[in-house]
Amino acid sequence: VANWGIQSLGLSLYADRLVGTYSGGNKRKLSTAIALIGCPPLLLLDEPTTGMDPQARRMLWNTIVGIIREGRAVVLTSHRQEIPREGEGECEALCTRLAIMVKGTFQCLGTIQHLKYKFGDGYIVTMKIKSPKDDLLPDLNPVEQFFQGNFPGSVQRERHHSMLQFQVASSSLARIFQLLISHKDSLLIEEYSVTQTTLDQASPPRVLSARRLCLLHDST
Q: Signal sequence span per UniProt (predicted)?
């Protein structure tokens, strides 16, 4: 059991070292490994990925997912809200149900999809604009005017070089695709993607960036 915990959480290189010499991330791994001893039906983890690098964090995520597949329940808390390159944050990667707490008070409880639907604000449209000439930067103004005219209330989230990103509210997904496809050539859109708002963007208005995220992950 001990060897399984060491290998599952990437502690093989540190197994013969004193715990006092461990980094903060490795101490978190060790605490999680100890909690797994005895195969408890309910596992409680308080911010288990704090201090971990992305690779170690993903390893722990995989371990937690494996526990769930065995039919056991996991309740964990997290402050993590950033979205890594893989395209999902800790909450979206792990939880089946999520409770958001502020100053010890529950603000909402539900599945990720339910919270996105209830508090989300449309879709994120990301585009790469091509230039008519190789030695010139693309003109982004026509695309910006297009979004202002066709999607009132849309918010420009990013603008740099050839990339534009808008958050589009109060519009159907079908209409977004229809307009993008019909104007792709005239606006010189080289490629685009449309995604649903992330969990962080779908937060209740009263929840600030310092919120505490409580993830509930169970087998039911």
A: none
CB-CB contact of 68 with 74 (8 Å): yes
For residues 199 and 178, give the distance between their C-alpha atoms in angstroms, rounded to a whole number.
Answer: 26
- Which CA distances in Å does 140 have to 13, 32, 130, 190, 192? 51, 49, 9, 12, 14
Distance CA 191, CA 211 (A): 35
For the domain made up of 1-113+210-217, the CATH class stated in words is alpha beta
Helix (H) or strand (E) run with residue 192 in it: strand 189-196
Could you tell me the mean pLDDT of each successive run of 10 residues in the chain, 220 residues long? 81 88 88 87 86 83 86 81 52 78 77 73 89 84 94 89 88 89 95 80 46 48
Provide CATH 3.40.50.300 ranges for the chain.
1-113+210-217
Domain spanning 122-196 has what CATH number?
3.30.70
User: What single letter denotes the amino acid at residue 109?
Assistant: L
Q: Angle, to 10 degrees, between the axis of helix 54-69 and the axis of helix 24-36?
A: 10
pTM score, whole prediction:
0.59
Q: How many CB atoms lie within 10 A of CB 187?
A: 22
